[in-house]
Each structure stands twice: as C-alpha cells, then as structure tokens.
Amino acid sequence: MTDKxxxxxxxxxxxxxxxxxxxxxxxDMQQTLxxxxxxxxxxxxxxxxxxxxxxxxxxxxxxxxxxxxQVLSRIGVFAMLGGLTIRVLLEVVSMIKLKKISTLSNSxxxxxxxxxxxxxxxKTQRLYSPIIIGIFTLGYxxxxxxxxxxxxxxxxxxxxxxxxxIAIVLIYVIRKGVQTELQNLREWTELLQELEGx
Length: 198
Hints:
By secondary structure, the protein is mainly α. The chain is built from six helices and no strands. The chain is elongated. The mean pLDDT is 79.
C-alpha cells in the first residue's frame, strides 16, 4: 500500500513540476511581446519603404518624363500623389504609436497604448487604405484622356487593362500581409492583457 501511495505521490509531484515548466513566465511573455513588436515594426518599415518609393517615382515621372498639361490630368496626378502622401503619413503616425508601447511594462497605460495602436492599424488597413486605393485608381484613370492625345490607343488600352491586373495582385498581397499583421497585433494585445492580469 505504501508503494502505491509513493507512486501516486511521485506522479502528482512530476505532474506539478511539468505544469510549472509549461507555464509561461513573465520573461517568456515579454520575449514573445518583443517578437510581436519587432514583426509589426518590420512590416511597417517595409510598407513605408514601398510607399515612399512609389510616391517619389511617380512624382519624378510626372515632373520629368510626362508632365501633364490638361486640368483633368493634373487633378488625377494630384489625387494619386495626394492619396499616397496621406498613406505615408498614416504609416508614420502608426510608427509613432508603436514606439509608445513598452514590452517591459505591463501597466494599464501600456495596454491602452497597445490597444490604441491596434485600433489605429485596423482602421488604417480596413478603412483608409481602400479609400486611398480608390482615389489613386480614380486619379490614374483621369490621366487617360491626355495619354490618348500623346500615345497610341493600343498603348493606353494596354496600360489601363494592365493597371486592373496589377491592382488586383497588389490588393491580394496587401490583404494577405494585413491579415498576418492584424493576427499578430491581436495576439500581442491579448498577451499584454494577460500580463496586466498577472
């Protein structure tokens, strides 16, 4: 009987030790938070680099290669460059919000900063980005009449049709990236809330 009791006691003790080893420590949670923050920061830097490159390339194109003269075309260029500029500014604001988050703190203020950052990213990706893409697309097609004056019909048709396919691919790639980032941010927020509860 004593042997059975000792075996049961040992099994219980082993189970408790295993459970304690599997429970994430505060340091483990902080490391996970830092990884999430780093992944989000990397996504933002990549997005900002692409947006700035696109903005500067288009600005240079319309200044040096194909300066448009018609009013409708100028409005189109303004819509394209303006939309991209607003998107760049949204990304910069988002990066500022990210810097306010500390992975070393589990305070309520830090959790609120994280939730505010998450809410801003969701709004940027789900509301502002589609509107900006719509304005950019409208601006792109507003330039078509002037392109028809200077290029062949086939070339303009090719450009306009190509834009549709490029836009579809870009929207798909952006959407996949956004879903990954939002999942990451959701997990990050939940982890911070768990830390606050500890």
